[in-house]
Amino acid sequence: EVQLVESGGGLVQAGGSLKLSCTASGFIFNEYAIAWFRQAPGKEREAVSTISSDGGITHYADSVKGRFTISTDNAKNTAFLQMNNLQPEDTALYYCAAKNYPVASMSAAVYSYWGQGTQVTVSS
């Protein structure tokens, strides 16, 4: 059974940091590209960051560039999203997703597997 389990969300003040984790099981992790998406109440889901299956290529939404860093640890079947200098507009439910292809995409439609999400709330 394929599973993606996110953790690491929480409540933080503006300017603070959080590190999200996404632990995968049920598939060969290093063959899949990984992405982080987020969805705030009343807003559409948006791509935050992606990473290729070998970790060599990353992409970021303009809104998080320079503040967020995506990474993977294939030995632990885990992806991470380090989030620094968090702002209230970063408040959302954050999801990780996996696609069975080495190259990642910022389009949610191409991802086969999704986690349940972890809530990030940033207070001003």
Quick summary:
With 124 residues, the chain is mainly beta. It has strands at 3-7, 10-13, 18-25, 33-39, 46-51, 58-60, 68-73, 78-83, 92-99, 113-114, 118-123.
Structure notes:
The chain contains no helices and eleven strands. It has strands at residues 3-7, 10-13, 18-25, 33-39, 46-51, 58-60, 68-73, 78-83, 92-99, 113-114, 118-123. Strands 2, 4, 5, 6, 9, 10 and 11 form a seven-stranded mixed beta sheet that branches. A four-stranded antiparallel beta sheet has the order 1-3-8-7, with no helix packed on it. Strand 7 and strand 8 (78-83) form a beta hairpin.
N/C terminus separation: 40 Å
Q: Approximately how much helix is present in the residues? A: under 10%
Radius of gyration: 13 Å
Q: Using DSSP, what is the number of strands?
A: 11
Shape: globular
User: How many helices in DSSP terms?
Assistant: 0
Beta-strand percentage range? over 45%
- Rounded mean pLDDT score: 96
What order do the helices and strands follow? EEEEEEEEEEE
Largest sheet: 7 strands, mixed
Low-pLDDT residue intervals, each spanning 5 or more residues: none
Which secondary-structure class do the elements indicate?
Answer: mainly beta
Key words describing this protein structure:
4-stranded antiparallel β-sheet; 7-stranded mixed β-sheet; mainly beta; 0% helix; 124 residues; 11 strands
